[in-house]
Amino acid sequence: MAANCVRFRAMIPALTILGLDPGLRHTGWGIVAQDGNRLSFIAAGRISPDSVLPMASRLCVLAEGLADVLARYTPSEAAIEETFVNKNAASALKLGQARGVCMLTLAQGGLAVNEYAANRIKQSVTGYGLADKAQIQAMVAMLLPGASDLVTDAADALAVAITHAHHRPAAALMARRVGA
Fold first, then answer.
1. Handedness of CA 21, 147, 123, 168 (dihedral sign)
2. What is the mean pLDDT of residues 52-62?
3. C-beta separation of 159 from 121 below 8 A
């Protein structure tokens, strides 16, 4: 009986998780496969709209780039970093616009959007909620062989995906409670 379970388990495809680190200048994206407790690096990159374009055009470039990532990798689930409080209101507004476009594009692609605070992401990946970008990059490279030498935006996006992989059972439970 146990052998049948093992064979059946092997037929279950790995879950793919898209993590996003939103920004108007650079939006990082990263995809991991989760098979039980094992995570594997699939791909990562960033979408960088030209800063000379008008705001609406930059947001379109961001949406189109993210739609391309969704079409190419067909992730099963998605997670995004929450907006943190920023002292510069104009910067916070621009970040919010980029984040909104990302969330809309994910929703249009049929994905639920899971959100995680920056401190929770840092805590999940490094064990320290106030870790800096270099520490996050180093831990992502250690946790995901093949994911070294990435730009910080892509490494941060992979950290979001890793966080979701660690917390997704709790996120699913909360979603069921909210929907009940």
1. positive
2. 97
3. yes
Angle at 163 between CA 160 and CA 164, to 5 degrees: 90
Cα torsion 129, 77, 140, 13 to 10°: value is 140
Contact predicate 40/144, CB 8 Å: yes
HSE-CB at 118 with a 13 A cutoff on CA atoms is 11
| Whether pLDDT at 179 is above 80 | no
What positions carry a catalytic annotation?
21, 81, 153
The answer to whether the beta carbons of residues 158 and 41 sit under 8 Å apart is yes
Rg (alpha carbons) of the chain, rounded to whole number:
17
pLDDT value, residue 11: 45
Instruction: Give the C-alpha separation, 169 to 127, whole Å.
Output: 19
Following CA atoms 17, 22, 24, 27 in sequence, which dihedral angle do they give, to the nearest 10 degrees?
Answer: -40
Q: Range with the lowest mean pLDDT among 5-9, 40-44, 150-154?
A: 5-9
pLDDT of residue 178: 56
